[in-house]
């Protein structure tokens, strides 16, 4: 049975709400939000709405109780529509915007940034929980790290060899093609871990709006959290 999905009008309304003054620029954009929720839903932990909503929208100053109620209702419907599609292995439309400099070319970076961040907010470390399959999980996650620029940034930062322009173009095209299937592959794999003993993080998790642990005094999302590094 096909899961009920959000209408285009509801998505447009949620997009407008997230961009409203109530959020003071703190809320994720809809593309990043979809990536974030795909990871949250895939987590071997059960991440509560109270936890993921706080990370996704910050601390909004709603204009009215009605606006708050509408926003939360749409957020939960967005979450449930994604959760249902992943659980039932249904295809769903991925929200990808065009690049500012080239609207005809899709921008995968924000979506993938949201996904990578979402993979880090649970108590269980994904790669440690994967155990002997950590290398396979890493290979799947590389699709996101390639599309959001993290692999290239990491290589350049450490003065390591990187792909030629032709090789990079080919790798990006292959990653874009694999992108939709990898989302489902990781979801199914991570769900299989829920019956296993979870591996807890040794270091505390850092929220997007928490002070960056590097000591810069900036928020995490404005400092190390914006670098798209792999650590």
Mean pLDDT: 86
N-end to C-end Cα span: 40 Å
Structural category: mainly alpha
* Overall 3D shape: globular
Give the spatial strand order of the biggest sheet.
1-2
How many strand segments? 2
Helix content: 40-55%
Question: Brief description of this entry?
Answer:
By secondary structure, this protein is mostly helical. It has nine helices and two strands.
What do these coordinates show?
The protein is mostly helical. It is built from 9 helices and 2 strands; from the N terminus they run ααααββααααα. It has helices at 8-18, 30-42, 49-57, 65-87, 109-118, 126-130, 134-147, 150-157, 165-192, and strands at residues 97-98, 106-107. Strands 1-2 form a two-stranded antiparallel sheet. The protein is globular. Residues 198-203 and 226-231 have low confidence and may be disordered.
Question: Which features does this protein show?
Answer:
mainly alpha; 231 residues; 52% helix; two-stranded antiparallel sheet; disordered C terminus; 2 strands
Topology (SSEs and partners):
Elements (H helix, E strand, L loop, with lengths): L7 H11 L11 H13 L6 H9 L7 H23 L9 E2 L7 E2 L1 H10 L7 H5 L3 H14 L2 H8 L7 H28 L39
Antiparallel strand pairs: 1-2
């Amino acid at each position: 049975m096909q899961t009920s999905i959000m209408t285009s009008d509801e998505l447009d309304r949620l997009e407008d709400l997230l961009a409203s003054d109530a959020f003071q620029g703190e809320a994720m954009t809809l593309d990043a939000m979809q990536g974030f929720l795909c990871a949250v839903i895939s987590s071997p932990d059960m991440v509560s709405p109270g936890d993921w909503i706080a990370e996704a929208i910050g601390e909004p100053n709603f204009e009215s109780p009605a606006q708050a109620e509408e926003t939360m209702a749409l957020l939960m419907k967005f979450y449930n529509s994604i959760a249902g599609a992943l659980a039932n292995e249904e295809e769903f439309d991925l929200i990808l915007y065009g690049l500012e400099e080239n609207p005809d070319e899709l921008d995968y970076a924000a979506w993938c940034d949201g996904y990578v961040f979402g993979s880090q907010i649970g108590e269980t470390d994904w790669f440690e929980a994967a155990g002997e399959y950590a290398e396979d999980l890493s290979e799947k996650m590389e699709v996101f790290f390639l599309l959001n620029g993290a692999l290239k940034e990491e290589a350049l930062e450490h003065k390591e060899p990187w792909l030629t322009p032709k090789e990079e173009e080919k790798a990006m095209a292959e990653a874009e093609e694999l992108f939709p299937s990898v989302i489902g592959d990781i979801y199914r794999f991570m769900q299989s871990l829920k019956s296993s003993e979870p591996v807890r993080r040794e270091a505390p998790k850092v929220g997007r709006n928490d002070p960056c642990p590097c000591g810069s005094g900036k928020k995490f999302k404005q400092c190390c959290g914006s670098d798209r590094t792999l650590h």
